[in-house]
Write a structure and sequence with these properties.
By secondary structure, this protein is an all-alpha fold. The protein has a domain at 24-184. 69% of the residues lie in helices and 0% in strands. The longest helix has 24 residues, at 515-538.
Length: 664
């Protein structure tokens, strides 16, 4: 039956390729054939699907059989495939070949790809290039710089020179970008620049001109060339592409203007580049105008004050006051970054502040969820930029609307930034505006929103519980504890990330709570959660080291110098050195490994003279331990007692209940 379906699949493959189904023997590959000969044979005689599979695995094959001969052999096979499929216009094969060469240029010996990024707007590109350099420092590349320069570079340039289609322009540009950091400086200035300029000729197809934008953008953003080289070699070429007849070319060129302005002299950027960018903001195509707006916002803090006041800010304010539909998304996304630049450069005026605040309130009540989500994300930056004095009049109602938004994602994002807003407003305004909002959020219909608010409580508590009378503080704390307990009851089984978020918050809340609140509210909750974790783990196997490690003696140590649980101080997290038990779900494993030590530390802290030991003894509900073989046959898991959980620490404190104890 398997042979039958295999032959039918092969027939379909041959039918698509236009070959005779009788040639099924071409699919047969000797099982004992080595990897390199097999790859060579399939690249020369295999079907399209087989060739694509081999091309995708060439970096892995070479990592295990890396030699000059093997590399030369496989590269020769790729050249043959390229020439054959170039005439057939097979896009899938062309893309796969370019991806293969990119992986060879940026691939490491352990199979990872360290991709050199294509240029984007400044802040994003700066993060990408920093990440690339961090990865590069700790990596060993599969091919040496000499192999990349002498063998890959001529091959890639020949292939890219043949490409005219827009569909593969970006892939081809990424392939060249992967080569740039691996080559010598002289090569970069000659061969790469030449292919970039040639592809941008007006006689070339739109796909070629698009490659020109990307390639020259890579060289500009990478700071590999001097200011004089860029201005003399291809500055005018890039300016000419801003007026290209193809929409995609103009859009791509808008993005490159960000790096180009920073790479040339200030005079060139102000006299030649800025007018071109402002003209692109008036383009007939919406996607070009959208990219021009994003680039202008990115470059705002780059230009001198004269150009900002006379040319850039009036245009931006006019666009913000009368925002067209295609710019609503980009404006909402970049709003926080824009107003922060105005704030740091001291460019705020009465008119600009009014226009921007009005626009932000309008965007925060927009019908699309993504726009309101962007406003919720940017809210702390807006408060920072406009100051606390503007909050009550302009922003308080909007923040309340965002924390009660119909979309859960918007409410989560608004809640996630409440602690930053409270810090910016100061204690008096936070107590007036954010305190009631935090209680409202704790009553949210979504348990996820409640969990995010609980996670932020340790950060906002100092603003609500200090410099207030005891009645107000106790009333607020009682309400908070009530909602925390209610939140625990609505959490579904297996929501261990939400449980961990709550426990992490409880670990930081105890300085604000009284001993009675700790004992009567928090203590039962912690033991209920510990019993649930222990029950879920023991329910799979009765020999799990996660819980046993927290209470019993050490059976093994990860290192001879590692302390056993009985040798550790109460402040140290308990060590777990056993391998995960088969059958335990990842959520249970992580919850037990991370959350349990935190709960134990908090419970140890509760054993202080303020909480009488006789009251704690009531929590011990478990009978004396019986042999493991007897417990293994019981269906239910007994409750976990205080003394067994806390071990010698509990016994020591119980023997001297009135002695001075430190906080565990």
């Amino acid at each position: 039956m398997d042979d039958f379906f295999f032959e039918k699949e092969a027939e379909c493959c041959f039918d698509r390729d236009g070959d005779n189904p009788s040639d099924l023997e071409r699919l047969h590959v000797e099982e004992d054939m080595a990897e390199i000969p097999r790859a060579d044979w399939l690249l020369k005689t295999g079907l399209k699907q087989q060739k694509i599979s081999v091309l995708a695995s060439i970096p892995t094959i070479l990592a295990a059989n890396n030699s000059k001969e093997n590399l030369t052999l496989l590269l020769d096979d790729i050249k043959i495939i390229w020439k054959r499929n170039e005439t057939e216009n097979d896009m899938d094969m062309l893309v796969e070949i370019l991806n293969c060469l990119m992986h060879l240029a940026g691939g490491t010996c352990d199979g990872k790809l360290i991709a050199y990024p294509l240029p984007t707007l400044h802040d994003e590109y700066d993060e990408l290039i920093s990440s690339y350099h961090r990865q590069k420092q700790a990596a060993t590349f599969l091919l040496s710089d000499d192999q990349v320069t002498k063998q890959l570079l001529p091959m890639v340039l020949d292939f890219v020179n043949d490409i005219q289609q827009k569909d593969v322009a970006e892939v081809a540009s990424r392939c060249i970008a992967a080569l740039v950091p691996r080559l010598s400086g002289s090569v970069k200035k000659t061969q790469i620049i030449r292919i970039g300029i040639e592809k941008g000729d007006v006689s070339q197809a739109a796909g070629s001109r698009l490659i020109c934008c990307w390639v020259l953008g890579v060289l500009t953003a990478s700071t590999l060339l001097s200011e004089a080289d860029i201005e003399s070699l291809f500055f005018q070429k890039m300016m000419g592409l801003c007026q290209d007849t193809d929409t995609d070319v103009r859009t791509c060129m808008c993005m490159q203007l960000d790096a180009l302005a920073r790479a040339v002299s200030t005079t060139k950027a102000c006299a030649d580049l800025l007018p071109e960018l402002l003209e692109l903001l008036q383009d007939e195509e919406e996607q070009v105008k959208s990219m021009a707006f994003r680039t202008l916002v990115s470059l705002y803090d780059f230009y001198p004050k004269k150009e900002r006041e006379s040319q850039i800010l009036p245009v931006l304010l006019d666009v913000i006051a009368h925002t067209p539909s295609y710019l609503i998304g980009p404006l909402a996304t970049s709003f926080g970054r824009l107003v922060f630049k105005l704030f740091t450069l001291n460019d705020f005026g009465a008119e600009s502040s009014s226009v921007l605040l009005t626009a932000f309130n309008r965007l925060g009540r927009h019908a699309e969820n993504e726009v309101r989500l962007a406003c919720a994300y940017n809210f702390p930056a807006v408060v920072l930029s406009f100051g606390a004095n503007q909050y009550s009049a302009q922003l308080d109602e909007l923040l309340q609307a965002l924390t009660q938004d119909k979309a859960e994602s918007v409410r989560i994002t608004a809640v996630a930034g409440l602690h930053e807003i409270a810090h910016l407003l100061g204690q008096q305004r936070a107590l007036r505006y954010i305190k009631a909002m935090s209680l409202t959020t704790l009553r949210d219909e979504s348990a996820v929103v409640q969990g995010y608010m609980i996670a932020r409580l340790p950060d906002v508590m100092p603003y609500f519980c200090t410099s207030v009378d005891d009645d107000q503080r106790m009333a607020y704390l009682e309400t908070v504890l009530k909602h925390i307990l209610q939140h625990h009851t609505v959490l579904a089984a297996g929501k261990w990330r939400d449980q961990l978020r709550v426990v992490s918050a409880l670990e930081k809340l105890h300085p604000f709570l009284s001993p009675i609140q700790l004992f009567e509210r928090i203590f039962p909750l912690l033991f209920e959660m510990m019993n649930a974790v222990r029950g879920s783990v023991y329910g799979v196997s009765d020999d799990v080291g996660l819980v046993g490690r927290a209470t019993g003696p050490a059976r093994s140590r990860a290192h001879p110098c590692d302390p056993s649980p009985r040798e550790q101080s109460p402040d140290q997290p308990l060590q777990h050195t056993r391998a995960p038990t088969k059958g335990v779900r990842p959520g249970q494993e992580l919850l037990a490994a991370i959350a349990l030590p935190r709960r134990v530390r908090l419970c140890c802290w509760l054993l202080q003279p303020q909480v009488h030991s006789t009251r704690l003894c009531r929590a011990r509900t478990r009978p004396p331990r019986r042999p493991r073989t007897e417990r293994a046959h019981q269906g239910s898991v007994p409750a976990l007692g205080v003394e067994e959980l806390l071990g010698s620490e509990y016994a020591r404190r119980r023997e001297a209940p009135h002695a001075h104890s430190h906080r565990a």
